[in-house]
Q: What sequence folds into this?
């Protein structure tokens, strides 16, 4: 039987897209979107890009104006945290709001910034970049400050570094690992972006772990290895932790994310989990399950669940993942997952336009394209074709 | 403020004042215009804000960049000579009165 009441917890890309897609598909049941954030549902990618650069205001990040939710009969419960899921009675308990009953519950709870595991990490000048408030706060602090120290050379840290460098600030990036963005990209891409940042005046320090932080008046003193630094602003971007505690407390299986099956359902068939908080079976059939942190993953998961709720579509989720980042005017687009590659082939059309193809043996794992969107799109199609050739791919969901 | 008209595949038309400098994609989102996803937030990365520009308005538009050209190859609905990504078109006095037609689909 099709669910008549759907509650979606978390109003990021995943949660918003579930609601919008359900209505596009003509599903007319009772729909409620809950988030602990007070702000009208908003997009996160611009926070570390156009919002940080001061080019976009917060209202530009809203998915839709408030009238959209009224017009589409989507109940918005903002500024209230979901405290517990009562599975036997199929209700969620909220902080300061009456409980909500559901036939199907979608957990789109996302992730939170990983805290820096050293004393002093709670100091006033230490910033994360995760919510709209963070984005505005950091933009103001970077504008006011002279020296910005960024802990973590991943996407968020490097996007913040490029904004601060372009604003003429003195920027230091401290990365604990031996290369930049190591978790997500191949070594040639790491090298290229290291040169790009260094060329823009960013002081990139690899294998550099911060051992202490101390707030002294309105500045922060840091120690990393043998060196000491002083910063007006410290940005911490050392990854995220999935928000799976609500699910765990409800007795659902979790393991660094809410565990779901190929239909994105948790161990309770009335509850799904999508986006950053969900760990789902690798459609490529490899042993380890995947948990991905991207807009594409959240949105495609969301469309999959909406099709399940509205049309009872039961095909397994199988979409080629893709990601992007933009740093110092340079566009990096990634298709597929390149972790575990054993060789690369580089196709360079011009000095700052190239793609790195990552292989395991003869199999293409993924492609990372710098200022080469055509390569990126071709690789996405190639990877999708390879998947459908190796198994039964579900028909795409169209919106 | 420049006026922009969005036309749905069924012919329904809506006209809005869009602040100068704001993209036609953001203008559509902030006015709840159906049929524009704009999933990447306006960086010509996702091709989900595809529109067909009225032929009379083609000449006044800024040229298609290489990035936009590549992404237009990947739109969910057919690319036509009038295809543009609305995130790459900013409202301006020159574009005042522009009419854009929404495609049937935005997401593959």
A:
């Amino acid at each position: 039987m099709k669910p008549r009441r759907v509650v979606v917890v978390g109003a990021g890309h995943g949660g918003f897209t579930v609601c919008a897609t359900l209505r596009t598909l003509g599903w007319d049941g009772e729909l409620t979107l809950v988030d602990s954030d007070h702000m009208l549902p908003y997009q996160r990618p611009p926070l570390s890009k156009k919002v940080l650069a001061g080019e976009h205001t917060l209202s530009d990040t809203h998915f839709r104006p408030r009238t959209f939710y009224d017009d589409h009969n989507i109940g918005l419960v903002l500024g209230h945290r979901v405290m517990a899921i009562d599975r036997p009675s199929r209700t969620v308990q909220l902080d300061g709001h009456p409980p909500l009953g559901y036939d199907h519950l979608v957990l789109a709870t996302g992730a939170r910034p990983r805290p820096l595991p050293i004393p002093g990490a709670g100091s006033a000048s230490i910033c994360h970049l995760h919510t709209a408030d963070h984005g505005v706060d950091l933009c103001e602090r970077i504008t006011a400050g002279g020296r910005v120290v960024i802990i973590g050379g991943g996407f968020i840290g490097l996007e913040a570094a490029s904004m601060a460098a372009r604003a003429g600030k003195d920027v230091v990036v401290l990365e604990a690992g031996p290369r930049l963005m190591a978790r997500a990209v191949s070594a040639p891409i790491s090298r290229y972006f290291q040169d790009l940042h260094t060329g823009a005046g960013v002081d990139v320090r690899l294998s550099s772990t911060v051992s202490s932080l101390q707030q002294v008046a309105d500045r922060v003193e840091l120690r990393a290895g043998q060196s000491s630094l002083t910063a007006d602003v410290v940005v911490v971007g050392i990854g995220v932790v999935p928000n799976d505690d609500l699910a765990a407390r409800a007795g659902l299986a979790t393991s660094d994310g809410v565990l779901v099956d190929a239909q994105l359902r948790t161990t309770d068939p009335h509850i799904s989990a999508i986006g950053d908080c969900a760990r789902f079976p690798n459609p490529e059939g490899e042993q380890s399950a995947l948990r991905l942190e991207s807009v594409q993953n959240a949105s495609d998961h969301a469309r999959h669940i909406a099709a399940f709720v509205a049309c009872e579509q039961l095909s397994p989720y199988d979409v080629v993942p893709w990601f992007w980042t933009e740093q110092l005017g340079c566009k990096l687009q990634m298709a597929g997952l390149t972790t575990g590659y054993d060789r690369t082939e580089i196709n360079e059309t011009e000095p700052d336009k190239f793609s790195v193809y990552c292989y395991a043996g003869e199999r293409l794992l993924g492609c990372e394209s710098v200022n080469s969107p055509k390569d990126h799109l071709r690789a996405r199609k190639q990877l999708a074709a390879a998947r459908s050739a190796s198994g039964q791919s579900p028909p795409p969901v169209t919106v | 403020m420049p006026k922009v008209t969005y036309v749905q595949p069924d012919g329904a038309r809506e006209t809005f004042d869009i602040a100068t400098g704001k993209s036609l994609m953001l203008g559509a989102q902030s006015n709840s215009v159906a049929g524009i996803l704009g999933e990447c937030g306006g960086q010509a990365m996702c091709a989900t804000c595809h529109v067909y520009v009225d032929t009379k308005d083609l000449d006044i538009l800024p040229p298609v960049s290489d990035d936009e050209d590549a992404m237009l190859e990947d739109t969910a609905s057919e690319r036509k000579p009038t295809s543009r990504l609305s995130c790459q078109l900013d409202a301006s006095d020159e574009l005042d009165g522009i009419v854009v037609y929404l495609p049937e689909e935005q997401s593959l």
In short: Strands of chain B lie at 3-7, 13-17, 50-53, 83-85, 98-101. The two ends of chain B are 34 Å apart (CA to CA).
